[in-house]
Amino acid sequence: MKPAPFELHACRSLPEAIALLAAGDGMAKAAGGTQSLGPMLNLRLAQPAQLVDVSRVEALRGFALQGETLRIGAGVTHARIEDGQLPEITRGLLPAVAGGIAYRAVRNRGTLGGSLAHADPAADWVSTMTLLDATLVLLGPVGERRLRAGAFFLGPFTTALREDELLVAIEIRRFSPRARWAYRKACRKPGEFAQAIAAVWTDSTHGSARVVLGALGGMPHVIEGQGALELLRTDAGLERALDDAGLVEAYERQLHATMLRRALADLDASE
Ligand SMILES: Cc1cc2nc3c(=O)[nH]c(=O)nc-3n(C[C@H](O)[C@H](O)[C@H](O)COP(=O)(O)OP(=O)(O)OC[C@H]3O[C@@H](n4cnc5c(N)ncnc54)[C@H](O)[C@@H]3O)c2cc1C
User: Fold this and answer.
1) Fold classified for 67-173
2) CATH classification number, 7-53, choose in 1.10.10.10, 3.40.630.30, 2.60.120.10, 3.30.43.10
3) Ligand 1 contact, 114 CB (< 6 A)
């Protein structure tokens, strides 16, 4: 199938893009790398009257380390993160996740912001930014809003973004030297979306821990605290977590349990 007709606006600035989205009255849609939007247009699952292409907006393509916080422009591609072009503040987590997304042709065009705005529950950045408790910066005609990842994702393919807003940046905090992480996903074949994701982050400086189960029917399931993490090492604790994540099918439970056990083993091995 071919897309329904639309007007294409190749924007060069944020004010121009925001003005076009606001004028579109709900019929204008931002376009990043078009890796998800393209197929949706072709299948006519999305039929915007106007496409607001933000892929050439410089303000979305930069990044800056401000004290202990890294601000990443929403238009930064997976490939640039994979290639280590950003300051390394996550002890290798971001490049490792980026390098596991799809294949290089998709990573060359697909963007961090596009992936988060698309909010596919199986997307790697959705689980990762939830794990990192990242702050998402939204810009609209009335100004900026800042939301934690947990508040940004409202459900599968549903976010708190308003029709006239752009996701402009993602902010993450620098890992302490004692922070550790593990990230595991199960895919049918390399380059495919995950069927199960388990991500773990701990920081013994503060005794903090967070575990994310992703690629669920809904948005990622978060488990917080060192005690809760230790419970996951027991059969009963693991089964309880799978229940809480809404996993019913034996095959899906098995996949998620295996990813979680492997992630915990990776975490222990990284000590
Ligand atoms: C073959 C294939 C395999 C893939 N495998 C994986 C995988 O294994 N893991 C994974 O995580 N992803 C995977 N993806 C998805 C890929 O990561 C996309 O890059 C990503 O989902 C969307 O990014 P994009 O920049 O292309 O956004 P687009 O496709 O341009 O847009 C997606 C959505 O986000 C909106 N949007 C885009 N930018 C903004 C913005 N700045 N502000 C507000 N809204 C915005 C658009 O309006 C649209 O609704 C795969 C894609 C393909 C085609």
Assistant:
1) 3.30.465
2) 3.30.43.10
3) yes
